[in-house]
Structure formats: structure tokens, C-alpha cells
């Protein structure tokens, strides 16, 4: 591959075997990064490794369950020296509060909030010691736009936003930048499976009149990972097509 903005860097992308994470992993590889792919399905992970290699990139796969704290820390250890951490893995089950049990709530917090926290704690100090690094987390518009269902998801993503601001302050002086990309509805395998025949509803919630595509979020992540965004730190970048209120009037 020819010289690219991320050549010589290593990126760990969680949730890389589907949806936004997959699009991010492919885009960072195109930009020259060696990508450590995380997921739970080894077959899908190895297939993506092969796909990236055939396109001229470099990747390897590490399986881990981010709902398990020890497995999350093992992932950080096996990833090795990382320059870019992209927290793209996520749980999103939209149920009313009374229908969300303790295990369901805990899983949202474990995967969406605790796993990024543990990975940053394990990897960012080494980035700081080298004087450079990027942490990018995929948030959600659910953190700022309440709905009648999905409180557990919204709470877990709101946690990521405040962590981003804390981490930007904690590590910013050492050359590590920390930002969050906050998408609105995005058409992924997960959202299609969850909504089924109601998938068209995703196209009714913003000024663009359509849901986002994973590649569009991946382009923003690639920008934040590269040198062109060198003065962006502690930001929550909204990528929601101009989300509009569902309230009357």
C-alpha cells in the first residue's frame, strides 16, 4: 500500500466483526494502520482478516467477551502496543425499564461503559509514555435524546460521554487525544435484525430523511485517528443527520 495517514500505527477496534466496527476496521486498514480486530465470533474475525489482507492491508484477530472484565484485560494484553483504540463494540437492547432486569442493565454497563474504561486504563498510559495516541469511542444519540424505551442503553452511552471528557483532561497533556463519535440511527445488521419490518422508521428521525451508513461513521473515526484532527480533544461529535424532535409542535 502507498503511504497513508496511519501508516506505521496499530489500531485496536472492538466490535470489529459487524456493523460500525467492521466499517471502521476496514477504513483504518485502508489508511495504513495494522488493525487488531476484536469480536466474539472467530470465524467472522478470521474472514475479515483475510478480506483486509486481500485488499493490501494488515490485520489480526483476538476473540474476547467484553462483558467479562478479565477477558477485556486479556484483550488489551494480547493487542500489545496500540496507537489507536476504537471502542466500537456495543449492546443495544431497547426495552422499557420495568422489562429490563438487573442482568440486562449490567450487560449494557459492562460492554458499553466498563469495557472502554478498562481498555483505556490498560492502554492509554503506555500511549502517554510514548507521547502520542488516540482513543475514539462510538457513543449514541440515545445519550442525549430520551425515548420511551432504552433507558439502560442511553445511560451506558451517557457514561461514555463523561468519561471522554475526563480522559481528555487526564491524558491530553501527554499527547493522547480522546474523542467520542455519537451516531444517530445507523443501518447495520443489528438494527435491521432488531427492527425487522419497522426498519423504515430509521429514515424518519432526522433532517437528512435517512438512516446513516456504517461507512459514514467510519470516515469520521478515520479523520479523528489521523493528523488532520490534531486539535480535537474531549469532543463529542454528533453524526445524526440533523436529528429532529419527535415531540409535536
Automatic annotation (TrEMBL):
<dbReference type="InterPro" id="IPR002347">
    <property type="entry name" value="SDR_fam"/>
</dbReference>
<dbReference type="GO" id="GO:0016491">
    <property type="term" value="F:oxidoreductase activity"/>
</dbReference>
<dbReference type="InterPro" id="IPR036291">
    <property type="entry name" value="NAD(P)-bd_dom_sf"/>
</dbReference>
<dbReference type="Pfam" id="PF13561">
    <property type="entry name" value="adh_short_C2"/>
</dbReference>
<protein>
    <submittedName>
        <fullName>Short-subunit dehydrogenase</fullName>
    </submittedName>
</protein>
<keyword id="KW-0560">Oxidoreductase</keyword>
<comment type="similarity">
    <text>Belongs to the short-chain dehydrogenases/reductases (SDR) family.</text>
</comment>
Amino acid at each position: 500500500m502507498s503511504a497513508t495517514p496511519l501508516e506505521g500505527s496499530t489500531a485496536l477496534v472492538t466490535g470489529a466483526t459487524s456493523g460500525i466496527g467492521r466499517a471502521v476496521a476496514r477504513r483504518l486498514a485502508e489508511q495504513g494502520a495494522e488493525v487488531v480486530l476484536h469480536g466474539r465470533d472467530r470465524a467472522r474475525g478470521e474472514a475479515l482478516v483475510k478480506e483486509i489482507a486481500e485488499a493490501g492491508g494488515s490485520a489480526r484477530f483476538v476473540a474476547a467477551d467484553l462483558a467479562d472484565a478479565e477477558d477485556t484485560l486479556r484483550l488489551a494484553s494480547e493487542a500489545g502496543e496500540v496507537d489507536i483504540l476504537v471502542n466500537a463494540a456495543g449492546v443495544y437492547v431497547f426495552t422499557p425499564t420495568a422489562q429490563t432486569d438487573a442482568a440486562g442493565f449490567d450487560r449494557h454497563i459492562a460492554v458499553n461503559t466498563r469495557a472502554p474504561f478498562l481498555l483505556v486504563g490498560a492502554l492509554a498510559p503506555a500511549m502517554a509514555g510514548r507521547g502520542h495516541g488516540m482513543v475514539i469511542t462510538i457513543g449514541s444519540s440515545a445519550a442525549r435524546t430520551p425515548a420511551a424505551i432504552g433507558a439502560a442503553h442511553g445511560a451506558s452511552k451517557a457514561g461514555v460521554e463523561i468519561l471522554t471528557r475526563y480522559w481528555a483532561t487526564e491524558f491530553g497533556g501527554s499527547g493522547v487525544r480522546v474523542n467520542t463519535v455519537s451516531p444517530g440511527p445507523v443501518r447495520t445488521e443489528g438494527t435491521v435484525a432488531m427492527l425487522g419490518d419497522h426498519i423504515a422508521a430509521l429514515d424518519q428521525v432526522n433532517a437528512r430523511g435517512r438512516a446513516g451508513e456504517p461507512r459514514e461513521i467510519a470516515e469520521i473515526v478515520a479523520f479523528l485517528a489521523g493528523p488532520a484532527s490534531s486539535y480535537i480533544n474531549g469532543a463529542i461529535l454528533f453524526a445524526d443527520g440533523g436529528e429532529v424532535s419527535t415531540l409535536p409542535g
